[in-house]
Amino acid sequence: MSSNFLEINNATFAASTKNKVNNVSLTIKKEGEIVCLLGPSGIGKTTMLRTIAGLQNLQSGKIT
User: Fold this and answer.
1) Residue 54 to residues 40, 47, 48, 63: CA-CA distances in angstroms?
2) Where are the beta strands (DSSP E) in the chain?
3) Model pLDDT for residues 4-62, shown as the tens digit of each residue
4) Which residues pair with 30 in a beta bridge?
5) 6 with 27: CB under 8 angstroms?
6) Greatest alpha-carbon span in the chain
7) CA-based Rg of the chain, rounded to a whole angstrom?
8) pLDDT on residue 50
9) Partner of 43 for a Cys bridge, out of 13, 14, 27, 39, CB 3.0 to 4.6 A?
10) Can you tell me the distance from the alpha carbon of 52 to that of 23, in angstroms, rounded to the nearest whole number?
11) Separation in Å, CA 31 to CA 8, 24, 50
12) Cβ contacts of 41 within 8 Å, gap of 6 or more
């Protein structure tokens, strides 16, 4: 069992076959920790957040 609040390991997020975010790993250690996703428009920030929230399916990898 992990003691981290959120772990993403080697995940691939996809809104479509053309728009993918590949091989993402992220660890948030404590609840309440402030994290910011930055990047240009269309890079996949919303796709990642929708997948973490369970609104989209994860293509590969693991979220715990």
Assistant:
1) 23, 11, 10, 10
2) 6-14, 20-28, 60-63
3) 999 999 999 988 877 789 999 999 999 999 999 999 998 899 999 999 999 999 999 99
4) none
5) yes
6) 36
7) 12
8) 93
9) 39
10) 15
11) 15, 20, 19
12) none
Helix boundaries (H) for the chain? 45-52
**Number of residues assigned to the chain:** 64
The token pair at 50 is: 């929708």
* 58 Cβ contact partners less than 8 Å away, ≥ 6 residues apart: 11, 12, 13, 51
Quickly tell me which residue has 């930055």 as its tokens. 38
Planar angle of CA 18, 6, 60, nearest 5 degrees: 30
